[in-house]
Task: structure prediction
Amino acid sequence: MSESNLLGDYVRARRELVAPEQVGIPVSGVRRVPGLRREEVAMLAGISADYYLRLEQGRDRNPSAQVLESLARVLRLDDDATAYLLRLGAGKPRRRRRRPRKETVPPGVAQLVTMLPLPAYVEGRYFDVLAANALATALSPRLAAGANRLRDVFLDPAEQALYPDWENAAAGMVAGFRESVGTDTDDPRFIELVGELSLASPLFSRLWARHDVEACEGAAKHIDHPQVGGLRLNRERLGVGGTTGQTLVVHHPDPGTDSADKLALLASAVSDFNEAPVGSRGHPWQRGVKDTAKNHMT
Result:
């Protein structure tokens, strides 16, 4: 990724993912490049091949919205990816590299997280966990303040084991991360995190090179919890007012389902753990779940 040519990097990565057959171009013989050729993109978008080349090489940084929308159509971008392309084309003023800024959760939101009866945590712009309640940590020990969701999903086998299809979950997380960061790629936190994961995880490196973009929205999540078993939880994401990119994430089951019963069991174990004498405490998502399940059966 080149910080100075985000637009060119993006359209090049996306054209390599579009098969000629998808846009009605017949294929004969061996093609030397994956996806579409530059001249094919230019032809389908109604612009000159030379102009498209300048865009991809970063020699023309002021394309019109009409040109960008034509490219989005040829590259088969959805609404989120098209909006991202338009933001890249708008450019941004050059700024001096900033020092890392610590993200702080508003006190009222931090208090709300602890009081919610559902797994909840606050996620920063770079997917750092900034605050979490006990039930969220019982759902995954990695959901605790100081952790990073991207790092754990790509580098921690225990976190990967929670997701029956963790590679798809990881792909969605990378696409959401790119959308969250947008064009603000000179932030030291972003540079550090992408650099670390690119070196440590071949999967992250491969997914990052695709330039997928997807808005982080509510969705159903399947989790294979080591103590209570399979859970299907709805994930809601709510923006935290007065912050830059912080999100309150809450997981909740459909009422009356097996997942609701299992989450209630997990919540009961957390409650028992918190009420037990300090010296007798174990991990609420391990010993506490087993003890609570035993009590429910008697």
Notes: Residues 278-282, 292-298 have pLDDT under 50 and may be disordered. The longest helix spans residues 258-275. The radius of gyration is 23 Å.
